[in-house]
Structure formats: structure tokens, C-alpha cells
Amino acid sequence: MTVAVPKITDMKVYPVAGYDSMLLTLSGAHYPYFTRNIVVLTDDSGQMGIGEIHGGDSITKSLESYRPLVIGQKISAYRQILNDIRQKGWREKNDSGQGLQQLNLANLKYVVHAEAAIECALLDLYGKFVDLPMCDIIGDGRQRDAVEMLGYLFYIADYHKTDLPYIHDDDNDDAWGKVRRQETLTVDGIVKQAEAAQARYGFKSFKLKGGVLSGDEEMQAVVALHKRFPDARINLDPNGAWSLQEAIDLTKKYGTALTYLEDPCGPEAGFSGREIMSFYKNATNMPVATNMIATDWKQFYPSLMMKSVDIVLADPHFWGINGSLRMASVLNDWGLTWGSHSNNHFDITLALYAQVSAAAPGNITAIDTHFIWQDDQQLCDDALNIRNGEIKIPKRPGLGININLEKLAAANQLYTTLKRHDRDDSRAMQYLIPGWQFDPKQPTLVR
Ligand code: GKR
Ligand code: MG
């Protein structure tokens, strides 16, 4: 007896928005809203499969253009569907041909692969069809039942200095609910933020987003975090803002407080970021992670040759689910480390990170997530939770979560009220420093 494989009967793309705090990075200040795109596939067995990807008009346009390549296909043809999309689908290209994540944000759409949302939705359906969680059917299958997540700490600007509608007083039940909306620009403030995040989520690893204050001040925060949490793995990510010499000097002065550094320096004096990071590693022996200099296989090759990186943050939204796990296998075989980068996201991405990380072989690093800044804005029922610093893979098939169409409609409605859909962190900065402009070599508040 043959079992009928379900066919896709419908594909909907919902651009959505959520609320955010005034988080600071080298790119500027997060706006009160972040945007994402949600894909919902329906098959003729009545199941729904879901995927989430970055926001922005160009990504919505790509996804819409893929509908004819998806509808009518069997869910078992998911690899062929993705091949068709890559060969025939529309994708905005960068004239320079570079996919580097340069952190000027306008560039992000060239690094993001919109079809990863369709890959996720197809694998969600496929998992439901074969009655297995996604991590059991991707890559080499399940490697672990729980995945460690890191506590992603940010400096935060005072939203009172703006007339923008930043979310506040939405969740005053515990310290985390309060501190995540308050100005945080000091060493003590960062330690309090980490304590509050640890109390709610149990983190054993932390990452501080840098590129905001001087390197020295940010490293002092790292030292204080290390003192407060001596057993925690601690990482700082200035997104390449420091010069090579500054990165070396700061590492020599404060490096014992760090487990690794993420993108400490970038292109300089005619050398690429890959070359500079290699020089940095030679000088310091500090392990280095990146989501900036190895964002595709072509960039990975010279990064490997020059030993520029130890930990590749292979975000499934940049590499695809299959590509991210291919990277995990390669890194594991060659004694390097896999992790994932993140941007602001909803619970669909959280579930995807958990499933992909559960299938990544070897000794992976704790996974980035912005979700602790958004964790009461779920779009799904049965959303996964971070407890004791980790996410347990649920027994439910596919992604393990189910879209709540009312919540999805509300997030889509919020999106329709926004005048602009692309991320631009220089907008809110104008309230703090009039005329502020992105400078890849100048921390945001050092002007
Ligand atoms: O949310 O502003 C942010 C982050 O700075 C994000 O845009 C980065 O891409 O988290 C990312 C990173 O690790 O570089
Ligand atoms: Mg990074």
C-alpha cells in the first residue's frame, strides 16, 4: 500500500512587526519596532508548516515570487523546491557581489536567504508527516535533546529622550521585565542586566553587544561580568569596530575575563576583515567567532586558509538549514566550532534555532538569541522556553510549535501601521546625537 504524500495547496507570506527596546549597537539604536516575514504553507492533509525570516520589502518580494515554485508540489520534494527557488527565484543582488554582513544594515538583505523560511516550513510539514521532530530528519539527525542558549546583553539608551513609542512597563513582574526597558550604559547596569536575565532564564553563557562605548569601558563590563559569574563563558561582540592594534591591546589587558571574542576587528589599511582577524589571532591566541567575515562558503574558504576564525556563527537564515548543518559537520570534522548568530525574532526562529542546534554535531557553542527581549510576543501556541539556560526539544513533530492565526494577524496589523519596513538604526540615534551617521570604525556613542 502506498501512502499519499501531501501536496502544498497554499503559501501565504505575512510581513509582521513586534516591539523592541532602544538597544544600542555599532549600527545605532534599535527602533521601537522590528519587522520579520512569516511563511505559512498549507498541505492537502490540512497541516500547516511555518517559517520565519528577516523583515524588509525586498525579502517579502522574494518570498512572494517563490509561490508558483512551491504550490502544487509534494512536501517530499522539498530539496527540489529549494533548488528551483535558488535557480529561478528572484533575489535582490548586491552590485559588488559581496555577501559580507557589514552592519550598515542596508546590506543585510544580501546576506539573508529568504528561501530559508520556506525550507523551515517544508521541514515542519515533513516532520509532521513522518511524525518526527525536525532535528531527527535534518543533517545527520539528533545529536542532543537540549540546546544551550546564551544570554545576549545590550547597552540600552534612554527612550525618554525620544518621542518614539518604545514599549515600557509591559512586564514589571520580575527584574528582567523591568531592566530590559531601562537605560543601561554602565558597568553596574550590565551586571544587573545579566543577573536579571540569569534569574529568569538560568544562562551559563553571556554575550555583550559592544561597539557602543570605548573598547576599554566595554572590556571593564566584561571583567565585572566575569567576576560576578566566574564559571560563565563570556563573549564580547563589537562588530569589527576596533582597530587591530586596539583589539590586541584590549585582549592583552583584559582577555582573561573572556572565553572568546566575536568580530573584534574588521577591514583596515587595505587588508580584508579575514586578514585582520588572522593577524589578531596570531598576536593574541584568543578564539574568535564571526557572523561578519564568513557568511557564505566562498568567504569561508579564505577564512579557513588564513585561520581567521574558530567559531562560525552559521545562522540558518544566512546559510539555509541544510547549509548551516553542512557547516556544522565540516567544523566538527576539522576541530572548529559551530554556533548561530541572531537578529530580533519571534518564537518560530527560536524553535528553528533549537531544532538546528540539536542536529549540529560536535561541541557547539551556546546559541545566540534576541528572544529574551521579545519573549512575551509569541506568534505560536506551545512556544519553546529557555530554562536553566537551555531549550529542551519537545516531543511534538516538525518545529514543535503551532501558529496562532489571531496573534499572527495582530502582528501583521501592527506591520501595516509602519511607514517603513526596512531596519534603519540611525533613525532613533538622531534623538541622542543629532546628525549621527553609521561609522564602521567608531563606537556609536563615541562621537
Ligand atoms: O541586534 O543589533 C543587533 C545585533 O547587533 C545584530 O544586528 C547583529 O547582526 O547580533 C548580531 C551580531 O552578532 O553581530
Ligand atoms: Mg556578531
UniProtKB/TrEMBL annotation:
The keyword Metal-binding appears for this protein: yes
The keyword Mitochondrion is assigned to this record: no
Biological pathway: Carbohydrate acid metabolism; D-glucarate degradation; 2,5-dioxopentanoate from D-glucarate: step 1/2
Lineage top rank: taxon: Bacteria
Catalysed reactions, as listed in the record: D-glucarate = 5-dehydro-4-deoxy-D-glucarate + H2O
Top-level EC class: lyase
Keyword vocabulary terms for this entry: Magnesium, Metal-binding
InterPro entries with a match to the protein in the record: DgoD-like, Enolase-like_C_sf, Enolase-like_N, Enolase_C-like, Mandelate_racemase_C, Mandelate_racemase_N_dom
Xref: Gene3D superfamilies: Enolase-like C-terminal domain, Enolase-like, N-terminal domain
SUPFAM superfamilies assigned to the protein according to its UniProt record, in alphabetical order: Enolase C-terminal domain-like (SSF51604), Enolase N-terminal domain-like (SSF54826)
Domain Mandelate racemase/muconate lactonizing enzyme C-terminal per the UniProt entry, residue ranges: 187-287
Pfam families named in the record: MR_MLE_C (PF13378), MR_MLE_N (PF02746)
EC number per UniProt: 4.2.1.40
Protein name (record): glucarate dehydratase
